[in-house]
Design a protein that fits this description.
heterodimer; A: alpha+beta; Glutaredoxin; 2 domains; 7 helices; elongated; disordered N terminus; B: alpha/beta; Rossmann fold; Ubiquitin-like (UB roll); de novo design (two linked rop proteins); 3 domains; four-stranded parallel beta sheet; four-stranded mixed beta sheet; globular; disordered C terminus; binds flavin mononucleotide; binds iron/sulfur cluster; binds FE2/S2 (inorganic) cluster
């Protein structure tokens, strides 16, 4: 877990004006600042791809919330990334209904095709693989979410096409 | 268009003419892709329930909900009216009061709320408004799973439609009732679905459950009175107010009232979701609606209510999907989404998958959960890989007992061991066979499931 320590935390970055504006909007809806922290982390991630130590510090200074509190929240939730991720994050489902329908095989196939294991990013920085439990589409198992799209009834043969289309969608 | 007026008219007509539905929850879902939008919802009688509620006193609405015997659809089946009656009422009640829709749906094998969220966002909002009016609450939240993208989009648009049409905000439909609704998209953790953990998450904290008492009804979000209910629970409210508690009770085939969205996943011919009367026998759902097992597969067992309920077998097919009846068979209704285990998938691997999930999602507060579940996963993995010993089975049984209800702060750990303890009971031969032959008997049979990592 050394990746996110590349930049020491005493170095600051500024939040962008857009980020600040979006966070200010959140603050209007919550009676206490801390109520905005998870959504604020998501805003930062949507602009920067992940939440680095430096952006965490910037947020802490901006919201006047303890850095430790924000980090404890940032590290708790599955969808806040504390390490850089590739252009597309693949979330194949590893829930039981998908596995009953061959989901394991699909995930192994992704491992082989992209030459990465869970949590890793491909060398070309295109894909990060983070399996998630039950994606709430068990009647269409096996499924995967990527780029906010839900892929249903995935078959081994359809994987190359899915991955290709995802690559193309990000290169535009 | 004068929207208020048109609501008025359709309400009058709706109350006079529309025959009482037998499938209320899905009656707004049509073939039209845009059936989730306000205009279509209203054309079919949407917001009539709210309109009617606003003409009644708070207590009259609460009495109707109590009389309907509606039980929470989030898993525990707690009577909704009773839960609500603990919220402080009157002029000196603390304010603001909060009402929260639990749309976190992360239970393995559960996929019913997504349908309602995507196809009937207004039904949920109407239910939330009725709840808010009943308890004289001020602010509503929809706490929704972050990766339900379509659902989030539909809810956001639906909320805007409501604000634009005086269905939200100040003086709703001229009734003097004020209510606002915010949406919170979760950053993802199964424990966020536990109601007090959800409240912590809304406060921007780690989603650990809270010790009770105080109960959220008295001191919840930001220390104020708070009600958390499941998506499907809220969806029932407009219909109860519209068609009455007696009608609602008459829908059930056994003791419980109303209908329920039931689902089946696994190796069946026609996996999916259906709105059926409460009390529909399990076998009917699996055989008639899900079409029975896929060709070449036999039924070995099933979890009747999602990933944290005890296995049942074919011999329990006559059991009605009723809270107490399933309880008598030592399982639970849970979310009403059945996960079918076929004869070609290893039951040890199935339980391992589930226990690993629960171990990973533990918030870490209680020892039987934080330490017990990972240890159970290690033992199961050992057995699955053919390296198990018979004493491992005894240890697994002990771990189940340690995680029993009452030993932990929330129901995650007790739920986690339900599939395990029942598998040890019903499929004990399978566990022992793994240990005796020092390999998984299923891996050889069907190589597609070979590598359970
Ligand atoms: C670990 C855990 C996860 C839960 N997840 C959900 C969930 O995703 N949705 C839900 O409605 N209830 C969930 N519940 C149940 C809630 O705590 C709560 O009982 C429910 O939202 C109450 O609503 P109801 O009375 O309408 O069923 C969960 C409970 C536990 C212990
Ligand atoms: S049972 Fe598990 S998830 Fe629930 S409070 Fe205890 S440690 Fe947390
Ligand atoms: S188990 Fe994969 S979507 Fe439910």
């Amino acid at each position: 877990m050394t990746l996110h320590n590349e930049i020491p935390t005493n170095q600051t970055v500024e939040l962008s004006d857009v980020e600040k504006a979006q966070i200010d909007k959140l603050l209007l809806e919550t009676p206490y600042t801390s109520g905005a922290s998870i959504d604020a982390l998501k805003i930062i991630q949507s602009h920067r791809g992940w939440v680095s130590d430096t952006s965490l510090l910037a947020l802490s200074l901006y919201l006047n919330l303890p850095l430790g509190d924000l980090d404890s929240v940032a590290t708790f939730y599955n969808l806040i990334f504390r390490q850089p991720v590739g252009k597309v994050v693949l979330h194949p489902c590893d829930g039981i209904s998908c596995d009953l329908m061959g989901g394991q095989k699909i995930r192994l196939c992704i491992n082989k095709q992209l030459k990465i294991t869970n949590g890793q990013t491909t060398e070309d920085n295109q894909f990060t693989l983070i399996p998630l439990p039950c994606l709430g589409a068990c009647d269409k198992a096996p499924v995967m979410i990527a780029n906010q799209i839900l892929f249903e009834l995935i078959q081994e043969e359809s994987l190359p096409l899915i991955l290709n289309n995802l690559t193309e969608a990000t290169s535009k | 268009m004068n929207s208020e007026q048109s609501i008025e008219q359709s309400t009058e007509q709706g109350r006079e003419q529309s025959p009482k539905p037998t499938k209320p929850l899905t009656r707004f879902i049509t073939d039209d892709d845009n059936c989730w939008q306000l205009s279509q919802y209203q054309n079919l009688g949407g917001y009539d329930g709210l309109k009617h509620a606003l003409t009644l006193s708070h207590t009259a609405v609460l009495d109707e909900i109590k009389a309907s015997n509606l039980r929470g659809r989030g898993g525990a089946g707690f009577p909704t009216g009773l839960k609500w009656s603990f919220v402080p009422q009157g002029d000196d009640a603390p304010r603001p009061k909060y009402m929260i829709v639990n749309a976190d749906e992360m239970e393995p094998g559960a996929f019913k709320d997504r349908l309602l969220l995507e196809k009937t966002p207004h039904q949920i909002i109407e239910g939330l408004l009725i709840g808010g009016y009943t308890l004289d609450a001020d602010i509503g939240y929809i706490f929704i799973r972050g990766d339900y993208y379509t659902a989030i989009q539909h809810i956001e648009i639906a909320l805007k439609e409501c604000y634009d049409n005086n269905l939200l905000g100040k003086d709703i439909l001229g009734s003097g009732f004020n209510f606002e609704i915010h949406i919170h998209t979760s950053a993802g953790r199964y424990i966020c679905g536990e109601e007090t953990a959800l409240i912590n998450s809304l406060e921007g904290k780690r989603a650990t459950p809270r010790a009770k008492p105080p109960f959220p009804q008295v001191a919840g979000l930001w220390g104020k009175p708070t009600i958390v209910n499941n998506v499907e629970t809220f969806c029932n409210l407009p219909h109860i107010i519209n068609f009455g508690a007696d009608w609602f009770k008459s829908l059930g085939r056994f003791k419980d009232s109303g209908t329920k969205i039931f689902g089946v996943s696994g190796r069946v011919k026609n996996p999916g979701l259906w709105e059926l009367p409460m009390g529909t026998p399990i076998g009917e759902i699996i055989e008639n609606y899900a079409g029975g097992m896929s060709d070449g597969y036999k039924l070995k067992g099933y979890l009747p209510g999602g990933g944290s309920t005890d296995f049942l077998l074919e011999k329990h097919f006559d059991t009605p999907m009723d809270y107490d009846e399933i309880g008598k068979q030592r399982s639970r209704m849970g979310t009403g989404t059945i996960i079918v285990l076929d004869d070609k998938y290893c039951p040890v691997a199935m339980v391992l998958n589930l226990v690993k999930f629960f171990a990973q999602e533990s918030c870490g507060w209680c020892t039987p959960c934080r330490d017990g579940l990972p240890w159970a996963a290690v033992l199961l993995e050992k057995i699955e890989q053919g390296k198990g010993e018979l004493t491992d089975i005894e240890q697994l049984e002990d771990l189940c007992k340690f995680a029993a209800p009452g030993n932990t702060f929330c129901a995650l750990a007790p739920g986690a061991v339900e599939p395990l303890q029942s598998a040890l009971n019903y499929f004990r031969d399978d566990f022992e066979q793994h240990i005796e032959q020092k390999s998984c008997p299923y891996c050889a049979q069907d190589h597609s499931e070979a590598a359970h990592d």
